[in-house]
Amino acid sequence: MTETESNVYDVVVLGAGPVGENVADRTRAAGLTTAIVESELVGGECSYWACMPSKALLRPVIAHADARRTPGLRHLVEGPLDTAAVLAHRDDHTSRWKDDGQVQWLESVGVDLYRGHGRLDGPRRVTVEGPDGERRVLTARHAVAVCTGSRAVLPGLPGLDAVKPWTSREATSAKEAPGRLVVVGGGVVGAEMATAWQGLGSKVTLLVRGKGLLPRMEPFAGELVAEALTEAGADVRTGTSVESVTREDGTVVVVTDGGDRIEADEILFATGRAPRTDDIGLDTVGLEPGSWLPVEDSLQVPDVPWLYAVGDVNRRALLTHQGKYQARIAGAAIAARAAGTPPLTEPWGAHAATADHAAVPQVVFTDPEAASVGLSLAEAERAGHRVRAVDFDLGSVAGAGLYADGYKGRARMVVDLEREIVLGVTFVGPGVGELIHSATVAVVGEVPIGRLWHAVPSYPTISEVWLRLLEAFRDS
Fold it and tell me: What domains, with CATH codes, occur in the chain?
């Protein structure tokens, strides 16, 4: 391999997913020269194998379910979805796994793209092994940002490689619906993909080792999603582990810890993520290869002042929107330090990713949707807050009854009794994903309960649940 180029930039970014793109955008906007390195497609996991394709698969499934709950439409949607049309819709939203448009965007903001595998090679130095076999060296005057994301982790079951199991990538990019699909894992990926493929014609068996689905949310979230999946025809089994998996004459055979034998056409393992840091040269700067990278609130790696770790790699919140938020913080911090200006480190300042600790929002696009922000009741209690949880049946809100016949849902607001502010909110029900930003504003803004009384929800919308929660808090 020959070295053909050596270039100097203010900032070098490893990884051109949404996080890396946003770091590059912010540093370029600050006038810093920036290079970005990508070994796969510009746009990253979110654009091609996660957020965009999964939601493109789920939206028709959820719309179909909503239509069946709507008078005047029910008789028009009794048949199955057109799976081929849904998959074509998914392909449109992934740009058919081509990144031309995203490359053009990088060019438009003045970021130089290097295709190939990037590795740290000592302080502020990155080598790129290109597809053409050439080795390029990039040197950063001010910062290197590691934005390489995470990958799916498969369990250590004997012979699993021969089974060719699905991970989230295969689940979101499959060319047809398997007749029978086993999904292992009850987190977000497992719940969403069980919803999608059951709705697209697969017979889904969902195996969950724990007590229920969506374990990081309030318990009722997983309960309502599991109930709906069961009603849709899925076989949901909790407290169940996989003992062995084989593929016999094309059929996947799963044996559970209870001795049950399940046959399927494909099996998806949605059982965790690991950082993509195993082969990026961390050892050349005194860090452990393959590790999650610790950061302080400006996303700077401790004791390595020129190195930033942004997005999944720091394990703060494995969510695209949270990674993009971190990217904006990191870009501003890099620009401030490059200008010789001390970063603003106080909470909620321009250079502090405070929301990572206090107000991480998430929507799970199942049917029903589950959305949360801030602390659950259990998390608030473990943190030592004196709190009260207020629950309300979303189905009794006027707007919910108009949204769908037989609307099922629930809301919870966790209130800090010392300061009378909202620490966390969870909504579960059809369409609640669009409610969560109001809760995020309340949590981030630490809006006093007394002030929230004057934020009047429009009638008749599902947002009226805010009034009902406040009334329940006042009267309890």
Answer: 2-43+99-151+275-355 (3.50.50.60), 152-271 (3.50.50.60), 368-475 (3.30.390.30)
